[in-house]
């Protein structure tokens, strides 16, 4: 049992993000925490511009949240060690009398070491979201040994770790089995664009009647994410009257020109400025096309997958371990193919039998969305917070 004399104030720290970085993610989780009647107050430490950028449910803000600005370095180098130690110790001492752990929304290797040392010295429980620096496990072979050693060292500390989704947890435990008793997974929060709640209502599509299929892709345009294959697809299909193409994101005109395309190949501007524009374009897709490499998002969660669930858009993609996991968990969420040619050929022979599967797919998508509901994520987060 926790000491009943301790305060019911939850302290939340964002030690890395500045301005709009991860503002939607942090806003979603803070809004969920603010909906809890268990806390007397929530104190949120973050960089000043980030505090002003985080979108929080306004019905809770003035009741129990206290924004406290802190210094956040642009570089996060070891030369910032003294200012970071000072800030972390001040926050840990302030939060010492709280019955809850310190909740840390992001981390890197440098701050992970500092948080671990602070936890050992103060005996304060700390919960850390690991959705930043664990990506480097796939990029730097020598980083794996270092991180394993660090995690082993801090096993004696009172730290718990959260990753985004069961797939990431499964892969983290393959790499770092020592984390089994300290590692938890939470899903991202699926929220609607208005202020009435989190789940989006279903969208009515008319492509089945018009026989004009909107082929779309989205996100950061990057060769590492297979984006160039989408341009290849546009070139291969652009002269066929049954298809039109859209992109929810930004594509450099120079890249289009390199592939003998121009902006007229798309039915929308290829420079999206706001989340509202992004969602408006995404919602008009009949099919979301992605060419992610096999191991992309092995240790992270794809935000576009959440958009797919939100707007109920069937996925057409190359097999990828992340997609394979969620297809296995929820059923068919679209169509997965072995390679580009298989995907292209399937689109070329698309007919009514292809489209008739959409309602089954959308039923699976609606079932999947329940796991990303705010109330479910809230319950799971509170279980981690309240663990001894």
Architecture overview:
The protein is built from 17 helices and twelve strands. It has 388 residues and is α/β, with parallel strands linked by helices. The radius of gyration is 23 Å and the shape is elongated. Residues 194-209 have low confidence and may be disordered. Helices cover 41% and strands 16% of the residues. It has helices spanning 23-34, 48-53, 58-64, 81-94, 109-122, 141-153, 166-175, 207-210, 227-237, 253-258, 275-282, 303-311, 321-330, 340-348, 352-355, 358-369, 374-385; strands spanning 9-13, 41-46, 65-69, 102-104, 126-129, 159-164, 183-186, 213-220, 243-250, 287-290, 315-318, 334-337. Strands 3-2-1-4-5-6-7 form a seven-stranded parallel sheet, sandwiched between helices.
Count of discrete alpha- or pi-helical segments spanning 4 or more residues: 17
Uncertain stretches: 194-209
Class inferred from helices and paired strands: alpha/beta
Q: Output the strand order for the largest sheet.
A: 3-2-1-4-5-6-7
Q: Which percent range describes the beta-strand content? A: 15-25%
| Helix content estimate | 40-55%
String of helices and strands: EHEHHEHEHEHEHEHEHEHHEHEHEHHHH
Task: State the distance separating the first and last CA atoms.
Answer: 8 Å
Number of strands: 12
Q: What form results from the Cα inertia axes?
A: elongated
Please tell me the overall pLDDT: 85
Largest sheet: 7 strands, parallel
Radius of gyration over all CA atoms, rounded: 23 Å
């Amino acid at each position: 049992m926790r000491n009943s004399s301790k305060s019911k104030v939850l302290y939340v720290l964002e030690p890395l993000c500045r301005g709009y970085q991860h503002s939607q993610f942090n806003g979603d989780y803070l809004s969920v925490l603010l909906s809890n009647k268990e806390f007397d107050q929530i104190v949120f430490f973050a960089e000043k511009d980030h505090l002003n950028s985080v979108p929080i449910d306004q019905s809770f803000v003035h009741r129990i949240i206290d924004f406290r600005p802190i210094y956040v370095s642009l570089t996060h180098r070891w030369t910032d060690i003294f200012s970071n130690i000072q800030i972390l110790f001040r926050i840990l001492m302030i939060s010492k009398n709280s019955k809850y752990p310190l909740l840390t929304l992001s981390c890197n290797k440098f701050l992970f070491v500092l948080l671990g040392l602070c936890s050992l010295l103060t005996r304060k429980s700390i919960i850390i979201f690991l959705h930043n620096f664990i990506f480097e496990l796939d990029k730097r072979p020598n980083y794996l040994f270092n991180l394993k050693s660090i995690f082993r060292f801090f096993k004696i500390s009172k730290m718990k770790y959260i990753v985004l989704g069961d797939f990431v947890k499964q892969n983290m435990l393959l790499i770092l089995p020592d984390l089994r008793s300290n590692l938890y997974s939470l899903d991202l929060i699926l929220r609607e664009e208005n202020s009435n709640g989190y789940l989006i209502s279903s969208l009515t599509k008319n492509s089945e009647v018009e026989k004009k299929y909107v082929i779309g892709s989205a996100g950061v345009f990057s060769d590492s994410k297979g984006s160039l294959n989408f341009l290849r697809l546009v070139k291969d299909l652009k002269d066929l009257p049954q298809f039109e193409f859209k992109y929810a994101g930004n594509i450099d005109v120079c890249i289009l020109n390199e592939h003998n395309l121009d902006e007229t190949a798309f039915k929308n501007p290829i420079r999206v400025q706001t989340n509202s524009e992004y969602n408006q374009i995404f919602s008009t897709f009949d099919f979301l096309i992605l060419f992610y490499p096999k191991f992309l998002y092995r240790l992270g969660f794809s935000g576009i997958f959440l958009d797919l669930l939100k707007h109920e858009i069937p996925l057409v993609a190359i097999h990828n371990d992340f997609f394979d996991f969620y297809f296995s968990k929820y059923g068919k969420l679209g169509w997965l193919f072995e390679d580009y040619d298989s995907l292209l050929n399937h689109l070329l022979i698309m007919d009514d039998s292809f489209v008739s599967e959409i309602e089954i797919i959308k039923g699976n998508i609606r079932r999947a969305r329940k796991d990303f509901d705010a109330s479910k994520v809230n319950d799971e987060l509170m279980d981690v917070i309240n663990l001894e």
